[in-house]
Amino acid sequence: MIRGDMDALPMKEETGLPFCSLNGNGYNYGVHDSRVTFDEGALHKMTAVYAVSAMRRLEEHQ
Hints:
Layout: H1 30-60
């Protein structure tokens, strides 16, 4: 079983960079982006494995 989630926890902007958020809310979605990418990749792989397995079972019964 694989559980995928994407939590959007509020995080304050603390970089002090010239292009930082003006309202104090930081953009920290790099971790979220990589998590979603991993989840989609795992789902794609599981779907492909299931499809091959189903095709083999069909061939065995013919």
